Amino acid sequence: MRIVFFGTGPFAIPACQWICQSEHVVQAVVTRPILDSGKRRKTSENPVRDLAESLGLAVMSPTDVNSPTTVRQLSELEPDLFFVCDYGQILSRECLAAARLGGINLHGSLLPKYRGAAPVNWAIYHGETETGVTVIHMSAKLDAGPCLAVDKTTVVADETAAELEPRLAQLGVRPVAKAIEMLHQWDGQSPLGVPQDAKRASKAPRLKKQSGLIDWRESAEQIFNQIRAFQPWPGSFTQWQGQNREPVRVILHQVAPVESTGGPPGIVLAADNDQLTVQTGQGGIQILSLQPAGKRKMDGAAFVRGYQPQVGDLFKNP
Q1: Domain boundaries in the chain?
Q2: Containing H/E element for 228?
Q3: Domain 209-316, CATH
Q4: Which has more pLDDT, 35 or 33?
Q5: Crossing angle for the helix pair 13-21 and 161-171, nearest 10 degrees?
Q6: How many C-beta neighbours within 10 Å does residue 294 have?
Q7: What is the pTM of this model?
Q8: Considering only the top CATH level, what class is 2-200?
């Protein structure tokens, strides 16, 4: 089949590589334009573009994928199918109609749960022990089309979003192959896939900087899940307020829920060379690694030795 691939971020790479190595023809790759911020980056902000250019594929970077000009350009390619993954724009009904069979989308959750831009993060945030990937036949409504193929996996107890997302990206290759074959065999009229139950839908909105603010009134388990969920961005942050000291903003990288003796949320329960423990709304949190503002990441023991927090100090909202 003639396929146009829409993608930008790293989640799309394994599926894109498989399609490029398959018997199907990739006519073009549509990706988000790179906005020059003037800042030097350590990693590419558009790995799909990098892959496409390395393979000599035609690249389109429309500011608005649904503009009449872009839709006309796509129609002129006479594609059989659009494949969309980690792209960053929602395709309109008119845009999807430019491909003979419409479009399919690889999504990083077990739809209809966690529809939206950040499904992996919010699944971990809500303490899911199982997640997966879903390939849908696209509709104009966000992540709402019928499900063509699904694959599931267990969420490891201490797994972060930064660890789970590439695992799900690899997991998505097999259902993508299955979905494309379904479309290849489809007569264009028979019911396709399994309709989603809208009553079971939940949202996974785009993350914001303030999403990472720690509320110490939450339970230790919830804070543990938050810290895993919001890595690498926006991170989970708070302030340490030592006695007679200016507050220090810190990012918490790794913690462990522990039993506690109780006390006001955010109060330091233990601060010695072995551990740094803070009370939450329910239970305690042992801080295993953290990063003070302007400093490198360090373990809890190094923070205790260097900053000398005391029992009774507070971790609190800025």
Answers
A1: 2-200, 209-316
A2: helix 220-229
A3: 3.10.25.10
A4: 33
A5: 20
A6: 7
A7: 0.94
A8: alpha beta
